[in-house]
């Protein structure tokens, strides 16, 4: 690649990054404005009963406020990042490839939101109930710090939200030819093991909670394999039609 091409590519990357950064700053400002309302809403909607948010240092409240704003900004910056990435690679794609790649953006964002919702409303309450039972079984006095509460929440919600991106990843890898239905079927048992390990790391160590997390992950994988198979067969039909026309 010529030096001028490198300069053009770097200039385009810089432009896309500046757009993403500018959008992130805007959404961060919105997040800073809404953080107090968001936190108060979460506190007013107890998932497992009332839990008092205690602070053990002067900065705990400020740090949670900032983390909430940052998470809000990151969440609404995800679709912008995906769109800017699509715009960057679009000149190197054919018209059909460009059209087929665009729907991945809203689908990826929707799956991320679903992952956040599932982990917050289902997985996190199970984890909290288990931990509270454990603490009560040893006679511990329950005093929860707001910083530890949200650190625990983020450790559960973010990995699950990322795990829900699995269908988009598999579809994309199938689209570019790195995966086939045969490869997916051959790797199924290894995927099950990986998803089981992931579910055990996220969920409490009791069978019901473990199944409640692992089963949706496995179903998500199977749905991904099914849809990837449909996409692969459609790609094969299009390739055959192109050969016949040639």
UniProtKB/TrEMBL annotation:
Transmembrane segments: 17-42, 62-89, 101-123, 152-178, 214-232
InterPro entries given in the database record: Sec-indep_translocase_CS, TatC
Pfam families in alphabetical order: TatC
Location in the cell: Cell membrane; Membrane
Coarse class of the protein's main subcellular location: membrane
Keywords: Cell membrane, Membrane, Protein transport, Translocation, Transmembrane, Transmembrane helix, Transport
Membrane topology value: Multi-pass membrane protein
Quaternary structure and interacting proteins, as annotated: Forms a complex with TatA.
UniProt-listed NCBIfam families: tatC (TIGR00945)
UniProt cross-references to PANTHER family, sorted A to Z: SEC-INDEPENDENT PROTEIN TRANSLOCASE PROTEIN TATC, SEC-INDEPENDENT PROTEIN TRANSLOCASE PROTEIN TATC, CHLOROPLASTIC-RELATED
Family in the record: Belongs to the TatC family.
Function: Part of the twin-arginine translocation (Tat) system that transports large folded proteins containing a characteristic twin-arginine motif in their signal peptide across membranes.
Protein's name in the database: Sec-independent protein translocase protein TatC
